[in-house]
């Protein structure tokens, strides 16, 4: 039996990058997987095909994580479609880098709505369905520990909020058999932060290893945390950053 057979997972922002890799890995481990996407319908359906190719069921739901009602509806739809929910991966996030004085309140609100409120809303909605063995896995950033370059104030602040949310919620739901954890990626080769991008060489100077990580590195950790072997891991953050913050 695969590690996550007979489980159902929802991955927010699952149409690209780290989210897509997580969705595919959970499917390979035997879970039925729902993903949300904001605008990339074509990419979302490519991920859906990959999920179904693993011999499990999948659905792609258009839901912007900044829209609380759409996100709640996505959780409910997943649970209805698959007769329950076992794993929520709060992956959807936005990042913008520039001096703090250049941020508009609208930009600030959008970052906080996606990166913080979206995680709160999704987790709150999922708790109606999660039971013994339930998992909430949040995706943060290595910049909650150290910020190695300027311009990341809003992004770092929003992701740091997930540390408190993860720890407090883990304490709240632990007796129900639900774990809550946080994975902090560092430089990962994605379309948003390519290993051949304009800032890649600078980021490499921060690494202890040779090069950027791959999306599958994060997906592997999420799959582990979602499984039975991680039942005693909760309220913690696990950093996968190639030694950026040593």
From TrEMBL:
It comes from the Bacteria. The keyword Oxidoreductase applies. Keywords: Oxidoreductase. GO terms for molecular function: oxidoreductase activity. It holds the Pfam family adh_short_C2. Coiled coil: none annotated. PANTHER family: OXIDOREDUCTASE, SHORT-CHAIN DEHYDROGENASE/REDUCTASE FAMILY (AFU_ORTHOLOGUE AFUA_5G02870) (PTHR43639), SHORT-CHAIN DEHYDROGENASE_REDUCTASE FAMILY PROTEIN (PTHR43639:SF1). Belongs to the short-chain dehydrogenases/reductases (SDR) family. This is 3-oxoacyl-ACP reductase. The gene is fabG.
């Amino acid at each position: 039996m695969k590690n996550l057979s007979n489980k159902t997972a929802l991955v927010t922002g699952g149409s690209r990058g780290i989210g897509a890799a997580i969705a595919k890995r959970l499917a390979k481990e035997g879970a039925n997987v729902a993903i949300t996407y904001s605008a990339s319908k074509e990419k979302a359906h490519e991920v859906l095909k990959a999920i179904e190719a693993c011999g499990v069921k999948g659905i792609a739901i258009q839901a912007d994580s900044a829209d609380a009602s759409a996100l709640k509806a996505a959780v409910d739809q997943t649970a209805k479609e698959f007769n329950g929910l076992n794993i929520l991966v709060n992956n959807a996030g936005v990042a913008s880098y520039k001096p703090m004085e250049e941020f508009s309140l609208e930009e600030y609100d959008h970052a906080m709505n996606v990166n913080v409120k979206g995680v709160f809303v999704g987790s709150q909605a999922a708790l109606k369905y999660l039971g013994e063995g339930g998992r909430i896995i949040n995706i943060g950033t290595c910049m909650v520990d150290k910020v190695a370059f300027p311009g990341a104030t809003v992004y770092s602040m929003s992701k740091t909020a997930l540390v408190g949310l993860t720890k407090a919620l883990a304490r709240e739901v632990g007796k129900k058999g639900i774990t809550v954890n946080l994975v902090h990626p560092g430089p990962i080769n994605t379309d948003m932060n390519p290993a051949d991008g304009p800032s890649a060489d600078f980021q490499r100077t921060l690494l202890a290893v040779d090069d950027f990580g791959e999306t599958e590195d994060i997906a592997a950790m999420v799959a582990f945390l979602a499984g039975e072997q991680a039942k005693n891991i909760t309220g913690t953050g696990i950093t996968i950053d190639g030694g950026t913050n040593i």
